[in-house]
Design goal:
2 strands; mainly alpha; about 5% strand
Amino acid sequence: MHEYTARLPLAPPAWPELAFGDSTLHALQNGACLGMVMEIEGIFQRSRDAFGEVLIVMTGGDAAFLADRLENQIFVTPELVTQGLFQILSFNV
């Protein structure tokens, strides 16, 4: 968010204690972090509505950071893609 803007700071990922930001930095963090959590929760609910009970798997470096704030149970494996590529490599060697 800080790129191509004159005065927005680079906001490291963090969970401010307040529900709403009391500074530009906290507002950026709340908007980004809570926005992602709400998006994931919304997709989870839509998936459940469409398919019944589902298992959500989160991957990537920020998966554990986000999963701690989700209300639904999420399976977290940050290195899934790397593990899969290793399995493919092992199979082909």
